[in-house]
Amino acid sequence: MNPAKVIGKTYSEFKNPLLKGYGFKILQAINVETGKPEGRPFYAIDPIKVAIGELVAYEESFQATWAFEDHEIPIDCAITAIIDSLDIGKEG
Amino acid sequence: MIIGRVIGNVVSVVKDPSYEGFKLMVVKEMDVDGSFAEKSYIAADLIGVGVDETVMVTNGTSSRATEETHEKPIDSVIIAKINKLIFIDSEVDL
């Protein structure tokens, strides 16, 4: 899993029926220590309904399909958690 | 997933039998501002799209996670038409 910031969403009129009910978000990977963006923005399916501006964790590649019940969904990037806070270099 | 523009379709007479019934499209990758990136893909069309439409493409093992593509030599599928990208303070029509 990796951290990323939600910077936008897509509007789609027509999708594969397996994707019904799910939206896509535009993510920007960030370096958690500096907070700076890393690399180009990318797209992820959003099964947990996050808002634009939130910090999230996402899963890439085939593992992303495991966020869905029967794994029968053709997606390669899924948002799996909302990150409320990060403690780096602190214990407890 | 990536977003791209369908720039053409593939005509193939001799092909793997498991490709029967699929339309194969050429998709050119796009950046979030709507400009074109270098890369283009041949992707199997699962929803029925036309040339000049903007689509979302799944790559890799995940593209075989559907009934139609299960255990077939396919690693790129078109899964949705994309009309618009919406950011906090702007919108990009595709």
User: Overall pLDDT of chain A, averaged?
Assistant: 89
Helical percentage of chain B: under 10%
Order of helices and strands of chain A: EEEEEE
Question: How many helices of chain B does DSSP assign?
Answer: 0
Give the neighbour order of strands across the main sheet of chain A. 4-3-1-5-6
The CATH class of chain A:
Mainly Beta
| CATH C-level of chain B | Mainly Beta
Major sheet of chain B: 5 strands, mixed, barrel
What is the level-2 CATH architecture name of chain A? Beta Barrel
Low-confidence stretches of chain A: none
Helical residue percent of chain A?
A: under 10%
What structural class do the secondary elements of chain B suggest?
mainly beta
Q: Radius of gyration of chain A over alpha carbons?
A: 14 Å
Shape of chain B: elongated
How much beta of chain A, percentage-wise?
A: 35-45%
Q: What count of structural domains of chain B?
A: 1
Strand composition percent of chain B: over 45%
> Counting H and I runs of at least 4 residues, what is the number of helices of chain A?
0
CATH superfamily of chain A, called what?
A: EutN/Ccml
Q: For the largest interface in this structure, which chains are involved and how many residues does each contribute?
A: A-B, 33 and 30 residues
Principal-axes shape call of chain A = globular
